[in-house]
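Supplementary Note 3. Input sequence used for the single-chain structure prediction.
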Amino acid sequence: MSVGTNDGHSAEEPLEVSVTRQRLLETSLWNKGTAFSDVERRELGLLGLLPPHVESIDVQAARCYEAYLEQATDLGKHVYLRNLQDENETLFYRVILDHITEMMPIIYTPVVGEACQQFSHIYRRPRGLFISYPNRDRICEILRNCACEETEVIVVTDGERILGLGDQGAGGMGIPIGKLSLYTAIGGIDPGTTLPILLDAGTNNEERLNDPEYIGWRHERIRGEEYDAFVDQFVAAVKETFPNVLLQWEDFAGRDAGRLLERYRDDLCTFNDDIQGTAAVTTGALLSAVAVTGEPLTGQRVCVLGAGSAGCGVSEQLVRAMVEEGLGDEEARARIFLVDINGLMHDGLTDVLPFQRDLLQSRANLEGWKSSGGNGEFSFADVVANVKPTILIGLTGHADSFPEAIIREMAMHVERPIIFPLSNPTSRIEATPQQLLEWTGGNALIATGSPFEPIFFEGREIPIAQCNNSYIFPAMGLGILATGANRVTEEMFMAAACALRDASPALRDAGASLLPSLDDVRTVSRSIAIAVGEEAQKEGMAKGGDVAALVDEKTWEPSYRPYRLRE
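The predicted structure, written as discrete structure tokens, is reproduced below.
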């Protein structure tokens, strides 16, 4: 871990740089702007290229925050911060960490959704790699073109399912850029070792294809064998170029996300954040909520609305959590009711995806159920009426999917209903916290996918936890990289979920938030990283040693290092 001095410089040995003059100022990972010392300015050819006064990083950060506040819109603030990142990465992360709670929604959800939609219009400078299908036979060459030869973390998307906004094509690049910003800001991963990648397989978004400023490959999406071969070529090239990299899959369509994870999870160090990260943060928050109710997890009845890869990932993680607490696998699965747009998923259905099959309810368990349609199928409302769930989770991507009547029905049978509307951005949430509190008489325990201010209800302030994957994936990356883990397992995600639960303020004050404040997210991330690293060691996936020390040694801090010119 680098230790900062009072002027914002690190106390480490000088860093050798290979460029000077204007090129140094244009290299975002090395640029210090007005913080270059007098000695550095003379030795690195910077005299006259900067105003004469040498500033500290504190003064620079204060100036940047002033400029940030002058932006009239959230998208304008996002663009300003992205430009700062492209100019001076160290300063960018210092500003982010100084204002993490305020800026997290700007650099990531929900504003990143609008940034992806407008990506071609706000594009300024290159960042990351665009690997388009026409260049599929040159992927190794493309990977070698990236600035970082020591890449440790890749986040890749094909842009087809960006948040709840659908196919954004090349605009999906905003997601890997945003995710990796959080790897560094929260997980302390050196930004010089991160690489965002967009697999451009085309787009079926007519608005993008008809936009004269669209920067992506102007072609309808490839499918089937062509698509699979493209991804195969990409993974093979990654393994050849960066054999020890951690690869995170992000915002792939439901039909592809689960099968790609299964195809490659034993082939390299990889995970899917939409499936596993969402599952871990949701499980951590649910374990906190269950502790508040005083009822064991094994006694809960869970309804998950949204049977895509995220909903199924959460369901499978809850099955594992229930099994760890004493239920058999079949007993645990009988307590989880997965609902899609057509109603309850059960074993009488034939048109189901592979990752849904193990979560189908047995028709034998539905004897005596009442069906409003009278056809033997069960709508969302039917499931709530028959199951009387204690936990309701929404991962639909559709606004207003939790109607008032259904929530009131749930609240009639549960003293403290646990309700998590997790779809984001905010425009896609299943129901707002204000609505849920009104419909449950203020008794609901709530976590959301996007940030919400505390709600004032009947004279009390009720905090709303943001069930944000950023609690999990940066810490996963830190724990994995610090211990040199060569695979990512479900047990590591369970360790992360339990560590997140242990950090819950609600465990000490039932009226507090289910999840810790973002102001504490770096401290929480360290604890989760240690838990993940220790689990990796336990499974024989990582090197030995004191995990806490390895994590601290791996953590990058946004402080300037002194420079000297490489001989």
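Confidence is low (pLDDT under 50) at residues 1-8. The radius of gyration is 24 Å.
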